[in-house]
Each structure stands twice: as structure tokens, then as C-alpha cells.
Specification:
Protein name: Hydroxylamine reductase
Function: Catalyzes the reduction of hydroxylamine to form NH(3) and H(2)O.
Shape: globular
Number of helices: 21
Keywords: 4Fe-4S, Cytoplasm, Iron, Iron-sulfur, Metal-binding, Oxidoreductase
Distance between the termini: 42 Å
Bound molecules: FE-S-O hybrid cluster, iron/sulfur cluster
Structural class: alpha/beta
Strand content: 5-15%
EC number: 1.7.99.1
GO biological process, one term: response to hydrogen peroxide
């Protein structure tokens, strides 16, 4: 295996034996093969689109496949095996359609488009497609897991020999994974954008083209940032049109006496369905990690049993899931390989999965998911052990902050607020991430932190005070709500009549961990933001030459220590 897609890449270069995240070699390799299959599907899908037809199910399959390979989402070997089989069936069916429509499908196509296709007869393909789209979970065909594992060792990251081309291809694919996650959440709420699917597929095909120069790949990476903005905007619209604009909200971090269900991850549709199904059951619902911002949405406030947020960022789940006592539902990443103390109380759904952990499937024909097994288990569980007390405040997404615009502008003009610090992104278990707590604590009292994502858990429980009624930590929401921070910055630029977003008194000290942070970064670059500092370490997938391009063109930098960085930011 070779994987270097997240901030925990072993020795800062890549995991080669087992992931620091817990992903084993066969899962890592099958993830590589699934991505390869998605490239093959995209080759035909782009041809189909040129010929004037497309298939919504194909677009969705590609998005779900990308999402499942995000760090800490899915560790279940059998689900990757099954998806590779489904993917091959979809690819070969598309090829037949393209051939019938007069498209070129000859054997000089990239290997991703043709490998293994002799294993399938046309009748077999049709049967499998029928089974797949009529809700069948298992696709039976002639492939063996051994064939997949053997093939997977030839199609991974290192199959691209030139390290700069490899770096750009992977940077692009990681950006696409982030987009895919956001598209999937938007799709669950009924919002789609065909142009984003087209870009995803065009970009996947581009990673198979040896004739593409580094410059052309750089251009695609930057274009990916544009589609990242579009995807986050689509999701923002999906969330706010379904559940209202986030409001300033105090969230309880203590516990109540009823048994509880803890819901983690990012999917608000799952959140809603769980709240509906648990009403009047005597069970309380608590959010965990990235689900915290669900409390800020008006539509969820009517549920009396929606009682608070339990625990901290994802990486502390080992101990916090144990003390929670009740069932835990993971709607997306970040899942940590579970301990035996709570594995039988853990459930996955959507893109997440883990061997031996119960998975809640999608509802049939658009019906809600069935959470009854979780609810029944919760009724037999003890109530959560209290690990904290008090409240945290959030809900500062764009609509709320813009409604306070006069106050904010006045505070900037009067000098009460000297500088904003965007400290969005991810948290993680690396020791050096204490940096972000220290940094937040040591910031001068006339500065305000704008945050989104699970990075906030490093400082959202500190008593940092307020400036004229404006809290010094403004939490916009989940990592995708970094979009809100960009909207706020663009509005401030307009209000202050500036020509360039970089003239604003905003510094960017962003923490990253997985691929959604990659798309947030590319989105900010697309919006013209310069001098972003990224920590705790720079991505292993940036080759020295590609890192140099980012430094020279966008002023991207790393972090050093709090004292130095503080000086640098405040003097900039
Ligand atoms: Fe945090 Fe993990 Fe939000 Fe990331 S819970 S690092 O997936 O997407 O952020
Ligand atoms: Fe290593 Fe991160 Fe890849 Fe897991 S996702 S194998 S920790 S680089």
C-alpha cells in the first residue's frame, strides 16, 4: 500500500504498511482500485455526455465512491469489493451504450476503461445493472477478491512515476473527494448541480492522460477550487433551504438523565430523520464532533429531546464513546477503528463502514432510513456519564454575521477589532496541534477568530470573551461552512470598498487533516485569498516543486511556533 492523502501520513511521507488511521493494506489497495474504476467509468461517461446522454445514477455512483475513500470514512473491505464489482458493471454498460451511439470505444483507451471487461457478458452486465438500480446490494459476477487485490497493486498513487505529476494528480483527486462529500450531503437534501458532476468526471479522466503537462494539471487543480466553491454553495443552499439559517445558539455540553443516542459526522438529513424517529421515545439525542452545528438550525430546535453536544473532536472518540453508554451513529467520517467496549453500540450509515459494525442502509425508494434498531438498543442503555458541564456558543454563519454587519464594521472602524483570524479546518490527534489552543489563547484581545470544522474544539471551550457583544470565537459551522467565512470576507471587502480580498484585516491560520480541508483550501485560492498558513504540517502529497508553485503564486506557508507566527501575522 501507499497512501499519503491525509495529515497523518506516516513519517510525513506516506503510510506503507498500515495506515496511522487504522486502514489496513487490503482496504487501502481496494480504495485505490475503486478510484481507478471511477476513472474508467468517467472515460465513458464523458463520451456519453459528448454524444448527448448522461445517467444520474452514474454521476451518483462516482460521487459515493469518491466519498467512501475519504480518510476515516470506510474501513470495510467487503463494501469496497462490492463497489468495485458494481463499478465495473456500470462502466461496461456505459461502454456498450456509447458504442451503440457511435462513440469510439476501441482498445487504445486507457487501461482504466478496459481492464477486466472480458469477464462480463452483455447479458450479465444488464442483469447486474438491473440488480444494482433495483436496490440490490450484492452484485454477483466472475471477479475474485484475489484478482482485485492483484490489480490494485498496479494502479495506486505510485503508478505515476514523475513525482510532480503524481503530486498534482493526487491533489486534484483529493479536492474531488472533498467536493464529492459535499455533493452527497446536498443530494440527500434534493439539490444537484450537473456541472459539478461534469467537472469531477473530466478531472478524473485528466488524471489518466499522460499527455497533460504539469501546467495543465495546475490549471485543473485551480479550477477544482471553483467547483469547490460551487459545491459548498450548493450545500449551504440545501442546508438553509431545508432547515433555515443557523442562529446564534448556546449548546449544552452536560448531560440529562435519559438514555441517549450520539450522532456524529456531517449529514443533516440523517440528523433530521433520527430526531423524528426518536420523538416521544424517552431517548435524548446528543451531537458529537462535526454534528455540533446541527443545534444552530431553527428546524431542529423544536425537538425537546435534542439536548446537547457530547465530547470533543473525532479523535477523542475512544474514551468518549465508552462513557456515552448509549448507541452512536456515524453518518460520515471521522470514524476511528472502534474499541470492543462500545463496538456493539456503534452504527455506520451512508459512506461510512467498518467490518463487524452494524450498517444502516438507505431507505428504499426514497423512504427515510430505519433507525429502529438503534432506538431499541438505546432504550436498554444507561444514560451518558457527564464529562463536561456548561455551554458553547455558535451559529455565526453568513446570514447571522451579515445581520451584525453594522456592529462588526463599526468595531473595525473604531479599532475595537484590529484583526480577524480564520482558524477553520480539522482537528487531529497529533501532539503539535496544541499549537492551536495556545495560539487562540495568546491572540491579542482585539482580535476575533472565525472558525468552521472540527478544528474549533481546540479553542471553543476557552473563555476568550467578547468585543462589544461580539464573541471572540465565531463558529460558522461544519468544515463545509468555511463557505460562510468566504461569503463574510467578500461582503466585508464590498462594505470597506476594497479592490482585493487580501486588503482586509483577515489572516488565515488553517489546520488540515483530511481531503475536505483540501477542497476548502483550493476554494479559498480560487477566491483569490493569499498567504494562507497551513498546519500542523504541510501535505505529504505536495512534491517540493509543487509546494514551490503554491508558495510563489499564493504565498502558502506552514506554521512554526506560536510566538513567531503571532508576530508574523500581527505585523503583516
Ligand atoms: Fe473533522 Fe473529520 Fe469536517 Fe474533517 S470530523 S477532520 O472529517 O470533515 O472536519
Ligand atoms: Fe495514512 Fe492518512 Fe492514508 Fe490513513 S488516510 S493510510 S493515515 S495517509
Amino acid at each position: 500500500m501507499f497512501c499519503y492523502q491525509c495529515q497523518e501520513a506516516s513519517k510525513g511521507t506516506g503510510c506503507t504498511v498500515k495506515g496511522i488511521c487504522g486502514k489496513d493494506e487490503s482496504v487501502a489497495n481496494l480504495q485505490d482500485l475503486l478510484i481507478y474504476v471511477l476513472k474508467g467509468i468517467s472515460i465513458y461517461s464523458m463520451k456519453a455526455k459528448e454524444l448527448g446522454f448522461s445517467d444520474n445514477n452514474v454521476d451518483k455512483f462516482i460521487v459515493e465512491g469518491l466519498f467512501a475513500t475519504i480518510t476515516n470514512a470506510n474501513f470495510d473491505k467487503s463494501s469496497f469489493e462490492d463497489n468495485i464489482k458494481k463499478g465495473l458493471a456500470i462502466r461496461d454498460e456505459l461502454r456498450n451504450k456509447v458504442t451503440k451511439a457511435g462513440g469510439k470505444t476501441n482498445s487504445d483507451l486507457h487501461d482504466a476503461a478496459i481492464w477486466g471487461s472480458s469477464n462480463l457478458s452483455t447479458e450479465g452486465i444488464l442483469q447486474k445493472i438491473f440488480s444494482l438500480f433495483s436496490g440490490g446490494n450484492k452484485v454477483e459476477n466472475n471477479y475474485t477478491i484475489e484478482q482485485f487485490l492483484q490489480k490494485s497493486t498496479t494502479v495506486g498513487v505510485l503508478a505515476t512515476e514523475n513525482e510532480d505529476i503524481r503530486s498534482l494528480r493526487e491533489l486534484l483527486i483529493y479536492g474531488l473527494k472533498g467536493i464529492a462529500a459535499y455533493l452527497k450531503h446536498a443530494d440527500n437534501l434534493g439539490k444537484q448541480d450537473a456541472n459539478i458532476h461534469d467537472f469531477i468526471q473530466r478531472a478524473l479522466v485528466a488524471t489518466t492522460e499522460d499527455t497533460l503537462s504539469a501546467d495543465e494539471l495546475v490549471a485543473l487543480v485551480l479550477e477544482c477550487g471553483k467547483y469547490g466553491v460551487d459545491a459548498m454553495s450548493l450545500l449551504d443552499n440545501a442546508n438553509t433551504s431545508s432547515y433555515g439559517n443557523p442562529e446564534i445558539t448556546k449548546v449544552n455540553i452536560g448531560v440529562k438523565s435519559n438514555p441517549g443516542i450520539l450522532i456524529s459526522g456531517h449529514d443533516l438529513k440523517d440528523m433530521e430523520e433520527l430526531l423524528i424517529q426518536t420523538e416521544d421515545t424517552g431517548i435524548d439525542i446528543y451531537t458529537h464532533s462535526e454534528m455540533l452545528p446541527a443545534h444552530y438550525y431553527p428546524a431542529f430546535k423544536k425537538y425537546k429531546h435534542f439536548v446537547g453536544n457530547y465530547g470533543n473532536a473525532w479523535w477523542k472518540q475512544d474514551s468518549e464513546f465508552k462513557s456515552f453508554n448509549g448507541p452512536i451513529l456515524m453518518t460520515t467520517n471521522c470514524l476511528v477503528p472502534p474499541k470492543s467496549e462500545y463496538k456493539d453500540r456503534l452504527y455506520t450509515t451512508g459512506a461510512t463502514g467498518f467490518n463487524g459494525v452494524k450498517h444502516i442502509p438507505d431507505g428504499e425508494e426514497g423512504k427515510p432510513k430505519d433507525f429502529s434498531a438503534i432506538i431499541e438498543q438505546a432504550k436498554k442503555c444507561k444514560s451518558p456519564v457527564e464529562i463536561e458541564k456548561g455551554e458553547i456558543v455558535g451559529g455565526f454563519a453568513h446570514a447571522t454575521v451579515l445581520s451584525l454587519a453594522d456592529k462588526v464594521v463599526e468595531a473595525v472602524k473604531s479599532g475595537a477589532i484590529k484583526q480577524f483570524f480564520v482558524m477553520a479546518g480539522c482537528d487531529g490527534r497529533m501532539k503539535g496541534r496544541d499549537y492551536y489552543t495556545d495560539f487562540a489563547e495568546k491572540l491579542p484581545k482585539d482580535t476575533v477568530i472565525l472558525t468552521a470544522g472540527c478544528a474549533k474544539y481546540r479553542y471553543n471551550k476557552l473563555k476568550l470573551g467578547e468585543i462589544g457583544g461580539i464573541p471572540r470565537v465565531l463558529d460558522a459551522g461544519q468544515c463545509n461552512d468555511s463557505y460562510s467565512l468566504a461569503v463574510i470576507a467578500l461582503k466585508l471587502k464590498e462594505v470597506f470598498e476594497l479592490n482585493d480580498i487580501n486588503e482586509l484585516p483577515i489572516s488565515y491560520n488553517i489546520a488540515w487533516y483530511e481531503q475536505k480541508a483540501v477542497i476548502v483550501l483550493l476554494a479559498l485560492l480560487h477566491l483569490g485569498v493569499k498567504n494562507i498558513h497551513l498546519g500542523p504540517t504541510l501535505p505529504a502529497f505536495l512534491s517540493p516543486n509543487i509546494a514551490k508553485i503554491l508558495v510563489e503564486n499564493f504565498g502558502i506557508g506552514g506554521i512554526t511556533d506560536v510566538e513567531n507566527d503571532m508576530k508574523m501575522f500581527l505585523e503583516a
